[in-house]
Task: inverse folding
């Protein structure tokens, strides 16, 4: 039988996501009540600008005093969608102290201080759910935390930022440069006025930290994640990838070491073969590829941002926490039993695509090959193009005069060795400059 006393929900933030959460809670109240087993009542909404027009949001529920709202004592669940570190952290811990479970979409806070928040939730016997913090509407956190809890996840490889995927996709399909593609993303609302968090990889790095922590049962913070953005990706890089049968994506990669003793987490642009499932992820969509010992290869795909998709994930967590409230229990919390070492980027084994501007004269290729050999990095392919030549061709012999572009693709080697190789190449008199460096993944 359905309980008649409603479960009360406080909403912190009423922007694009928050207003959609409020709208769905109001218009789908009967459906939510049927799924939960009790009515759900939106008891208050904390906002910074109460006079702002919010279509479909009851004005009488608005308040500027978020602290007073979460301290009421009759709130069962707090939904936090304001983002950032403070005041979100203080409001969440205050909610716990007053007996409320929390549903959050705050990737930055969870990536920086997730362990402390989980500990506070356990201390007060409440839930902390955050499906919406990574990849919007895509069910990802719960499958990793629950469905794959009995398996051994070895690798998580994903496109977790829609803005950068849109930009790189436009560069790949239209031949646009980075700035031109960014302008289009901004005009369409995919990129913020200040796109730094997206294009420099901060957003993806926070998500990588969360995914690595859950997948490997190890505490990983955003400070543990190696991060590179896409601002240096050029149309030439995209063209080189196409010649290799690849495309360029900003990837979040979390993986277990070969001996199982450590994990790494990184975010950077990379070339991936067109045969890989992630290569077909277009526009602003997200996708995450999971490799597990027993389950094998799994892929989760869908819209990774936006009001409605993110609200869908928030409401899924709201239903779960409300059901737990009715059953006087809590769901799965932090799983940090393994506590594996988080290794440095230098330990990662990967491949490199390196484009060099070199003097077009005899002996250059031999000098370059010697540097790779000295650092024990094996060369897979080499392609040389003279500045005045029509197109790329495989090197048969060094040519004389002018300048040339030399492209080297390596076999797999430790990232530290590859980095040292590049630094040694920069010191060669015959190398005019290192035009681009990009890793090759997903093979």
Result:
């Amino acid at each position: 039988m359905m309980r008649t006393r409603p479960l009360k929900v406080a909403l912190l933030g009423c922007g694009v996501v928050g207003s959609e959460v409020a709208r769905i809670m109001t218009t789908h109240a009967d459906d939510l009540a049927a799924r939960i087993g009790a009515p759900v009542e939106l008891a208050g909404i904390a906002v910074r600008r109460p006079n702002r027009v919010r279509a479909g949001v009851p004005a009488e529920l608005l308040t500027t005093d978020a602290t007073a709202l979460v301290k009421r004592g009759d709130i069962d669940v707090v939904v936090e969608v304001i983002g950032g570190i403070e005041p979100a952290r203080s409001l969440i811990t205050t909610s716990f102290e007053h007996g409320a479970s929390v549903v959050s979409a705050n990737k930055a806070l969870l990536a920086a201080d997730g362990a402390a928040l989980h500990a506070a939730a356990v201390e007060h016997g409440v839930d902390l759910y955050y499906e919406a913090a990574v990849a919007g509407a895509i069910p990802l956190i719960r499958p990793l935390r629950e469905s794959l809890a009995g398996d051994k996840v070895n690798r998580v490889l994903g496109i977790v930022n829609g803005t950068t995927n849109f930009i790189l996709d436009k560069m790949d399909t239209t031949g646009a440069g980075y700035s031109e593609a960014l302008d289009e993303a901004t005009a369409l609302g995919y990129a913020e006025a200040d796109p730094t968090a997206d294009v420099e990889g901060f957003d993806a790095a926070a998500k990588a930290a969360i995914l690595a922590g859950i997948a490997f049962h190890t505490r990983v913070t955003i400070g543990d994640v190696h991060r590179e953005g896409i601002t240096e990706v050029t149309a030439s890089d995209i063209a080189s990838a196409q010649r290799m049968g690849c495309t360029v994506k900003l990837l979040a990669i979390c993986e277990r070491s070969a001996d199982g003793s450590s994990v790494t987490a990184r975010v950077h642009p990379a070339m991936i073969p067109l045969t890989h499932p992630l290569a077909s992820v277009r526009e602003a969509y997200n996708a995450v590829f999971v490799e597990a010992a027993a389950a094998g290869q799994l892929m989760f795909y869908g819209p990774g941002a936006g009001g409605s998709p993110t609200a869908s994930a928030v409401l899924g967590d709201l239903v779960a926490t409300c059901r737990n409230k009715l059953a006087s229990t809590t769901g799965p919390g932090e799983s940090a039993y393994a506590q594996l070492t988080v290794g440095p980027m230098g330990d990662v084994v990967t491949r490199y695509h390196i484009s060099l501007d070199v003097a077009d004269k005899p002996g250059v290729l031999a000098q370059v090959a010697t540097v790779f050999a000295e650092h024990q990095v094996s060369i897979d392919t080499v392609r040389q193009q003279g500045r005045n030549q029509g197109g790329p061709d495989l090197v048969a012999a060094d040519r004389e005069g002018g300048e040339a572009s030399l492209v080297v693709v390596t076999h797999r080697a430790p990232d530290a060795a590859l980095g040292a190789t590049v630094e040694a190449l920069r010191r060669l008199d015959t190398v005019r400059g290192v035009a681009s460096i990009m890793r090759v993944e997903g093979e």
